Chemotaxis protein CheW
Amino acid sequence: MIPSDTLNVTHEDARAIDDCWNRIGIHGDKSCPLLEEHIHCRNCSVYSAAATRLLDRYALQQDERDPVATQAEAELKTRSLLMFRLGEEWLGLATRSLVEVAPLQAIHSLPHQRSRALLGVANVRGALVACLSLVELLDLDGNAAPATGARVMPRMLIIAAQGGPVVVPVDEVDGIHAIDERILDAASRSGAQASAKYTRGVLPFKGRSLRWLDEEQLLSAVSRSLT
């Protein structure tokens, strides 16, 4: 579950604006007289204006982040990574930058997108949250098919970016795994990450080559995509 303070930014905005879609719109009692014309709230200018205000909040918010690990973190011999798949590529992201793995939600596109990576917004417990494409940010092949025919469940990762959480859709989640830091250190020194965007190293995992993402570089790219 998402801690109450994690979505504080988006919920503050929800209180500051008239979130009519949750009261009289498609997620409320559907009594809004504009529903007959727009069919769905996402087609209404009020909804688009609220989403634009959210993105403006991301641009203005400058939360401080401590880049230095605590002494306790420095003494750990393993590091927790969430393993997930985009197309045919498997990636690992440090769990400290992750808020939650959530079911896939509808993504509502916005007019005049601010960046190619910005897919739109998704409704997370009544709050509008910006949705970004990791395929675009990481320059991946978005048309690649999974290597196996097994049934998989796409998910959304909710990431703790500066200014508030963002969601990114992924094709599959393997789970959270504790990786020996000696393996990670060896991967970061190997130089295999030189040609891969926002990547600290490449390591073997369950017979796969897994890209270990540099969360600081990735979060910085996420923030730039929202301004």
About this structure: The chain has a mean pLDDT of 77. The two ends are 28 Å apart (CA to CA). The chain has eight helices and eleven strands.
